[in-house]
Recover the amino acids of this structure.
């Protein structure tokens, strides 16, 4: 019997999430419901393979109803130290704290592909 290659599985899962979010970006102006479906799929993959959805992507959809952020569908307000995003579909309020930018030398070992 073949041994499951969990590391490889997770790698592929991450790639799929990446692709799904890219598709979501492309589709959200054309077919909003399909864009939501992509988010749903990405979330399912993340759960199945127990990987985290990258923070950047997490900011792109409503946690509750999974609809991707789009102008007119969400209300964005900036408070003292946080950004408050309200989903106009389900009413979910997301508060994103703003932290002062720490000056850190970014690691330059990331290889740019593409
Ligand atoms: Zn929502």
């Amino acid at each position: 019997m073949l041994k499951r290659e969990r590391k490889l599985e997770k790698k592929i899962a991450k790639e799929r999430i990446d692709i799904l979010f890219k598709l979501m970006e492309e589709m959200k102006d054309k077919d909003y419901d399909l864009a939501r479906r992509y988010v749903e799929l990405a979330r399912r993959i993340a759960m199945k393979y127990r990987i985290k959805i990258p923070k950047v992507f997490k900011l792109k959809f409503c946690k509750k109803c999974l609809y991707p952020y789009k102008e007119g569908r969400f209300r964005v307000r900036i408070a003292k130290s946080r950004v408050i995003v309200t989903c106009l579909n389900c009413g979910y309020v997301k508060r994103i704290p703003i932290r002062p930018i720490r000056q850190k030398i970014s690691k330059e070992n990331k290889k740019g592909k593409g």
